[in-house]
Each structure stands twice: as structure tokens, then as C-alpha cells.
Amino acid sequence: MTHRVLTVAGLKGGIAKTSTAANLAAWWSGAGRRVLLVDADPNGSATKLHQRGDGQLLLLSASQCVPIQQAPMAMTKPWDLVVVDTAGGSRDEQGQYAEGSDFVICPCQPAASSIEQVLDLAEIVKASGKPFGILLTMCDERRKVDATKARQVLTRVGLPVLRSQITLLSAWPKAEAAGVAVRDARTDANRPDPGAAKAWQQVGELAAEIDEALS
Ligand SMILES: Nc1ncnc2c1ncn2[C@@H]1O[C@H](COP(=O)(O)OP(=O)(O)OP(=O)(O)O)[C@@H](O)[C@H]1O
Ligand SMILES: [Mg+2]
After folding, report:
1. For burial by CB atoms within 10 Å, which of 61, 113, 118, 163 has the most?
2. Atom 8 (ligand 1): residue with closest C-alpha?
3. Distances from the Cα of 181 to the Cαs of 77, 120, 128, 175, in angstroms?
4. Ligand 1 centroid to 76 CA: how many Å?
5. What pLDDT does residue 88 have?
6. Where are the domains of the chain?
7. Mean pLDDT per segment of 10 residues, for the chain of length 215 residues?
């Protein structure tokens, strides 16, 4: 049984690696694909998120979230997709995960320090020879110019920037706190979060773009 491995990489903390990995896994699982979400961060953020929501994150019961230590055993089962959430920081580790992937997503905020880390990360991923795409994320709608400029800077140096873009929305931390996919984010008054549908649509667009790249 062949599965595709998708890694969410990053050299910096707090750039939406776990949010991206968990929600892509949720999207594909909701679409009936057997998804293994591998939590390769010793902090266990993805595992904790999954547990907080009592497993609601991955709709298809055949999908699973496991810490990296349990991945070899879990990998003996048939999967359609394996999504790996990495810990930011170690260059060697990021290189090793890239080598084991079919596609690497590199989240990047439209801010100087995040762009600098992604330029660095791109060199590491390029050395693995694996296809990758930079995902502009946490893009502030009130400062659209920042994302446009970041896209220009990265494209100008020849890096592949994904068409899909993720907007900065409070639905994301709300969903994270509840341990659910961003689609299911709710307000403090327990109403559906007004940004959830938009955020989920963007996750869907990203999933479609990656499916295209993997095909
Ligand atoms: N599009 C978004 N809009 C607003 N907040 C977001 C968005 N994406 C993620 N966040 C929030 O930003 C914070 C950092 O995100 P996340 O934990 O996914 O980053 P990370 O790169 O995995 O961090 P770490 O390096 O600690 O593992 C979280 O509180 C998350 O809910
Ligand atoms: Mg994380």
C-alpha cells in the first residue's frame, strides 16, 4: 500500500506548523482519506490538540494521531496520507524529515524574521531534492500589502510559493484551544465563529493544491 508523506517544516516557533498539519489532516480525514498525523514535536502539540478535542479533529475513525515514537508501528497500517508536524529549530532534523517526504510545506508569516527563516529552510529542503512549497500564513487582511510583498520577495529568488494563503483569524486559536478543526471553532458565547468557514475554505484550497502537487 503506497501512501504519501507530507511534512510541515519550519526553523522557527509559532509559525502555524501544528495548525497547518492538524487541519490538513482533518480536511483529508473528513474527505474519507485514511490519515496518520505524526507528531514529531517533543512538546506534543498535535497530540495534545487531538486529545483535547476527544478525537473530533480527525473525522474518519480510520485516521489516527500518534507521537513520533509510535510512528514505526503505526506505519505498518494502510494509510492514504501521512502528515508530519515537526518541531521548529533543528536544521539536521528538518533535513531528515524532508528526505522522508513526498512534499514539504514551509509555513511563513509575511514578516521579515519569518521570511529569513524560510529562506534558510528552503536551502535545507532543496538539498533533500524533495518538492516543497512555501505557505504564506497568518496574513493580516488589514495589511494585504505585506503578503503581496513577501510573495514577491520569495518568488524573485526563485522559491515556490503556494497559491493558497491562510488569513490571520481568531478562529484558529479558538479551534486550537478546543482541540477541533478550524471549521468547528466557536466564539466565547458558544456560537459558530464567524471566521471559521473562511479559514476552513482556505484549508480546503491548500489541500487541493497539495493533492495536485502530489499527483
Ligand atoms: N491563521 C492564523 N490566524 C491566527 N492565529 C493562528 C493562525 N494559525 C495559527 N495561529 C495560532 O498561532 C499560534 C502558533 O501556531 P502553531 O502552534 O500552529 O505554530 P507552530 O509553528 O506549530 O508552533 P511551535 O513551534 O510552538 O510548534 C497558535 O496559537 C495558533 O492557534
Ligand atoms: Mg507546533
Report:
1. 118
2. 16
3. 24, 30, 31, 6
4. 30
5. 83
6. 4-214
7. 91 96 97 96 96 90 93 95 93 95 98 96 97 98 97 98 98 97 95 97 98 93
In this structure, the residues whose C-beta lies within 6 A of any atom of ligand 1 are 10, 13-19, 41, 45, 88, 137-138, 166, 168-169, 172-173, 176
Question: Which of the ligands is closest to the CA of residue 89?
Answer: 1
- Nearest bound ligand to the CA of residue 165: 1
**Cα(145)–Cα(206) distance, rounded to whole angstroms?**
21
Task: Report the separation in Å between the CA atom of 129 and the middle of ligand 2, taken as the mean of its atom positions.
Answer: 24
How far is the C-alpha of 197 from the C-alpha of 175, rounded, in Å? 12
Q: Which ligand 1 atom minimizes the distance to the CA of 166?
A: 1
Options 3.40.50.300, 3.30.360.10, 3.40.190.170, 3.40.50.12780; CATH of 4-214: 3.40.50.300
| Close Cβ partners of 121 (under 8 Å, ≥ 6 residues apart) | 9, 10, 11, 94, 106
